[in-house]
UniProtKB/TrEMBL annotation:
Pfam families: U-box, WD40. This is WD40 repeat domain-containing protein. The keyword Repeat applies. One of its GO terms (molecular function) is ubiquitin-protein transferase activity. Residues 1-61 form the U-box domain. It comes from the Eukaryota. It comes from Chloropicon primus. Gene3D superfamilies: YVTN repeat-like/Quinoprotein amine dehydrogenase, Zinc/RING finger domain, C3HC4 (zinc finger). One of its GO terms (biological process) is protein ubiquitination. CDD domains: RING-Ubox_WDSUB1-like. The keyword Repeat applies.
Amino acid sequence: MRDPVMCTGDGHTYERHAIAHWLEMNKTSPLTGSSMERWDLVPNHAVRKAIAELQLELPSEEELQSSFGVPGDDGGQGASSSSVVQGGPAEKRVYNEDGIYVFASLRRSLYSLDATVHVWKAKKLCMPSKVATSAVESTWESSMKAQVTCMKALDRGRVVVSGSRDKMLRVWNVPKGGVDSAHLKQEAALQGHTDWVNCLDVDGREEVVVTGGRDTKVIVWDTLKWYAKHTMKTQDYVNCVAFDRVRDKFFVSGGNDWKVLLWDSQTFRQSLEFSGHTYALKCCAVDPVSASWVVTSGDDSKLCVWSPESNKCLVEIEGAGGDYNESINCCSISSDGHVVACGLANKRIALWDTRTWKLLQKLDGHKSGVEDLCFVPGFSNKKLISVDGRSLRSWSCKSSDWSCDHTVTAHAIACCEMASY
């Protein structure tokens, strides 16, 4: 197994994509035959740890798909569980709300390998409406067989950068006439990773992009000439990366080795190591106002706040993932640094006040675990976009109370990103 999960319907452990496909087609347990109208998939950390300790050579994805008979082109794979989105920089400029767009990576179906991108105007998504929001579907490349796991938009150069399961980092041009005028065009397809690209982030000056992958590599890419300028090795899968966009002095990474690594942005050497998590990390973000703290979380359901000046843990919140200590899949910090939003495996979004580290509110509405989320710039930190693999939701805050404005249902939404053009 690569991703063992326990099915709450019968208490047995399965490979995630295999049981997910089974439950799409059946409402019974594959082992007991009992009816399972209600179920959920919870990461089995004990089995995952046991597999890691055995140091076995895991089967390839193709072998797993063939064994379980999951349909799809070349053995399609399920939605990525480690997609990551970090909070945006503390921008000084005034945003034009008409020029802010939401990019979301979609697939034709849950097990399809064809990746497309849908683009919405953020202003329309953030207005209450019962009518389906019109979207501009910009095909990245119909022939590209790659599930997108992470995206980032660069204002300078008008490009969107994406990482995918085919080990490639791709650069896409946004037409000068706007996203409504034409399809996105691929500018470059960069090789460097030898396994899935799990995460990426861009520095404040937009001069470098950092990616992390299942090959345990952290790669720094030059955005002027688009080449790999430096490669670092870690001890396990890298699931999340986040830049200090205030001073561009450091960036952090986290993964399956349970550690948070802090890297110097100039020398690309590891300067600090934070230890305190007890399972794999899935998300991290840096304070966009002063870069004086870093927030991390993951499969141990623990929310930790670290000081980049030392290896001291400033805040540690146990059970931040919910009543049953579910995983925290993603996190984002508002541009004023006052709110941290966490996407939970229990289908909720948890909002935390960073001045007191008290829980502000839990948002319900998603039908499955929240895979990705980000605050919308230009809306006074009162707008939030989130995806759960099947739908995209926009949230707004009115009188300190958050509620859902709009829902867009789709086959398989992997990740979302904001852009201002």
